[in-house]
Design brief:
With about 260 residues, this protein is an alpha+beta fold. The protein is built from seven helices and 14 strands.
């Protein structure tokens, strides 16, 4: 019973993934030269579109979009050659995939719901980075994996030794590093005293969104990389971080999750 089976392509290359919704946003940015105009075209809020652009720049080896935030009034944005290549490659592969799925549709005996569930896994982590392992320090129980995430920034993750072995982690291996925004601790400025937190990523506040209980603060880490932190509204008011302020994101190494592309 596979009459409703459709292809849903996720493009993967060198540790980066791209789905149809992100490609549509990317193409709209290229057509309009504006993230706010692209958001309207694809039916997203400005914040959702801006978050999508940041996420794409985080997980690809080189930025797909160069942009300056301009709020709802619009900010200039343009595709990089890498962004244009991703759109072109996606279109070619999507066309081929659709033909393959149409040809195989009548031959698939699996329950389509089970099949699609296996293919549509997503992560809820707000921060996802394409990263390259630079070192692995193993012990009998655990392993410390240090990665380059671009923009001159690195992340360290402590996982079990068994997981490191099963994933085949070694210098040069491409991985995804995932960090939930609620795991990120923020500190004002870049000069932080002694702390037990392993990861310290310094940057500049690029956006702050306040809610009744929590606030989301996004740091520009350089190299078109960003990190989002969800903290309490009270903490946000105490820190008084505003766009343009220097700040440091603190993340325990045990809170950095690794995944293979």
């Amino acid at each position: 019973m596979t009459e409703n089976l459709r292809s849903a392509l996720t493009l993967e290359r060198t540790g980066a993934r791209m789905g149809a919704d992100r490609v549509a946003l990317l193409a709209a940015v290229g057509r309009t030269g504006s993230i706010s105009a692209a958001a309207r075209e694809v039916g997203l809020s400005y914040k959702a579109a801006w978050d999508g652009v940041q996420a794409m720049n985080n997980v690809f080896a080189t930025p797909l979009v160069t942009a300056a935030p301009g709020g709802r009034a619009g900010g200039g944005a343009q595709l990089t050659p890498a962004g244009e290549n991703v759109i072109a490659a996606y279109a070619v592969i999507q066309d081929g995939l659709a033909r393959v799925v149409a040809a195989l549709d009548a031959r698939i005996d699996l329950d389509p719901n089970d099949l699609l569930w296996s293919l549509m896994m997503k992560t809820s982590a707000r921060n996802a980075y394409r990263a390259t392992v630079t070192s692995v320090k193993e012990s009998t129980v655990s392993a410390e994996v240090v990665m380059d995430i671009g923009g001159g920034q690195s992340l360290a993750s402590v996982i079990t030794g068994r997981s490191a072995a099963e994933m085949g982690l070694a210098p040069g291996v491409e991985v995804f590093a995932l960090v939930k925004s609620s795991f990120v601790i923020l500190a004002g400025g870049t000069e932080i005293g002694p702390l037990s937190v392993r990861n310290r990523l310094s940057g500049t506040v690029s956006a702050r969104t306040d809610g009744p209980v929590n606030s989301e603060i996004v740091l520009d880490l350089g190299g078109e990389k960003t990190m989002a932190a969800t903290i309490t509204r009270d903490s946000a008011e105490t820190l008084n971080l505003q766009p343009g302020d220097a700040a440091t994101a603190l993340i325990k190494s045990s809170h950095v999750i690794l995944a293979l592309p």
